[in-house]
Amino acid sequence: EAFSHWFSTLPFRAAWQAMIVDAVHPPLYYLLLRPWLVLAGGSEFALRFPSAAVGVLTVALALRAGRRWLGASAGRWAALLLALNPFHVWYSQEARMYAMLGLLSLATLLAFWWALHCRRFWAWVALAGISALAYVTHYFALYLPLVQFIFLLATFRRTHRMIVRWTLTQGLAALPFAGWLVTLYTLGGGTFGIGWIRKPCLADLLRTLWSFGLAYDGRLTLLVVVGLVIWCGLLLWGLWRGRFAQGVRRLLALAFVLPPMVTFLLSLRRPTYVDRFFIGSLLPFLLLVGAGLAGLPRPIGWAAGLTLCSLGLWGVIRFQIDPLFTKEDWRGVATYIEANERPGDGLALRHLQYVIPFRYYYRGVL
């Protein structure tokens, strides 16, 4: 969050150079945050409000996608589970790009499905536009065209006539991201400070599922085991017995499984496996679970659904009361700097060199 504020409040030239040097994330989120902070001010509320607004829009889009793909009952369950999902709520309260990545990932899948089925020009234009925004929001959005390509291969008999049109659409969508890559290459950017990510083990796949369903805290209790059993059971039931529109079952399954599995395998050589990078897979996961709940007899479905909602709500409440979820005291640091800085002495700037690992100073950015 400190990086988000810093990139969004520096003079534009210095901020752009800093984004290029760092390059851990594409620049769209920071560029959108800049004009917002000019209008709304630099308060914590203003800084985090875009993520909260995007999180609410994601719930609405999940309801729309669920009703269109799975039916009214499954759509309502999926939207309710998302609204109370600790993983979603956490990143909808944080001044980072992950909530935006979740929204754009679901919107891209929905646009892709519409383009295949309505076969109208505007649907392909929408797919290109939404995909372009996703690709310059986070690098892990690049899993979306991989999911779509494998889906097209798996349904080749039915969709083979769409492959050329889809390829042209993806080429158009990739232009802004290609411009970003060219900028990094020509200006010598891209330190990519991800050396802190450790090599994953098989247990990390389970931890990701744990994070998706419950508030992950590392303590494997009986409640966690019961919750995970319910989540996994409903996921499998939804895949097996859920009612889906044409092709949706396969599309959601690919979007849920492919990003973490491929990243896990690649991370055995170059670690990049971090749960929050897979927030785009959270929405397909919850839609599949919603299909499972809708496919159960009503009393059993209501009991299972309310149990999952209760577990989710308890996880959200724990963010406020459990010390394990307490974030670093950046507010205290900022208050101390503001209280002790004298005009012109540069105290805040000197403190930031210790508070945040700004690798930009020695590159002559500031």
Beta-strand portion reads: under 5%
Helix content: over 70%
* Main beta sheet: none
- Unreliable spans are 346-366
Blueprint of the fold:
Layout: H1 2-9, H2 12-22, H3 28-40, H4 44-70, H5 72-83, H6 86-92, H7 98-118, H8 121-135, H9 143-154, H10 156-159, H11 163-173, H12 175-186, H13 202-213, H14 222-241, H15 248-267, H16 279-294, H17 298-321, H18 330-340, H19 347-355
Helix pairs in contact: 1-2, 1-3, 4-5, 4-6, 4-7, 5-16, 7-8, 7-16, 8-11, 9-15, 14-16, 15-16, 18-19
Explained architecture:
By secondary structure, this protein is mainly alpha-helical. Helix content is 72%, strand content 0%. The chain has 19 helices and no strands. Helix 14 crosses helix 16 and helix 15 packs antiparallel against helix 16. The protein is globular and about 65 Å long.
List keywords for this structure.
about 375 residues; 19 helices
Can you give me a brief rundown of this structure?
The chain has 366 residues and is mostly helical. It has helices at residues 2-9, 12-22, 28-40, 44-70, 72-83, 86-92, 98-118, 121-135, 143-154, 156-159, 163-173, 175-186, 202-213, 222-241, 248-267, 279-294, 298-321, 330-340, 347-355. Mean pLDDT is 88; it is low at 346-366.
